[in-house]
Protein: Protein Atu4866
Amino acid sequence: MKNNEFYIGMWVTKDGYIRHELLPDGRYDEARGNRKSAYQGSYKMTGNHIDYKDDTGFLADGDFRDGVLYHAGMVLYKE
Structure:
């Protein structure tokens, strides 16, 4: 398995409100509540750190620790 393959897929908050899909082509698609594709953009992995740039130019980042994604004050779990 390539290093980044673990991270590919759907990550969700415990309540399911935020659904954050990391795609294998370096893109992501984030849904919020009933808003499918609320945010879209690209991401880059460096070790367990992820940097995001959405299509409007907004930057964010996060870290994977013990199989959990900590991103912008949210905690997401792999589905």
User: Anything to note?
Assistant: The longest strand covers residues 35-46. The chain has a mean pLDDT of 94. The domain at 3-78 is CATH 2.40.128.290 (Lipocalin). The radius of gyration is 12 Å.
